[in-house]
Amino acid sequence: MSYKRFDLQLKYAATYAQHRFTIRALEDEVSYEVKLSGDAEHKTLKPPEWLSLLNDKLARIVAKTLYAREKQGSDVSPPAA
Known about the structure:
The chain has about 80 residues and is α+β, with helices and mostly antiparallel strands. About 35% of the residues lie in helices and about 35% in strands. It is built from one helix and four strands; from the N terminus they run ββββα. The chain has a four-stranded antiparallel β-sheet, with helices on one face.
């Protein structure tokens, strides 16, 4: 039985956290799996839970990136007149 596997691996350097979101398509069956940093194995989730968790993780990465850019920008002194 063959299957197609689609992986999305999220990494961000600030905490070295790694999360892997996987969709497995097995003929007529689809499973949604996630492996968060620190977990030993993938967990199978229902599609709404999987999508909600992915959305949450992406939002946190974007928020941390924007905060870091904002903080970095505020540390720069204005140019001398």
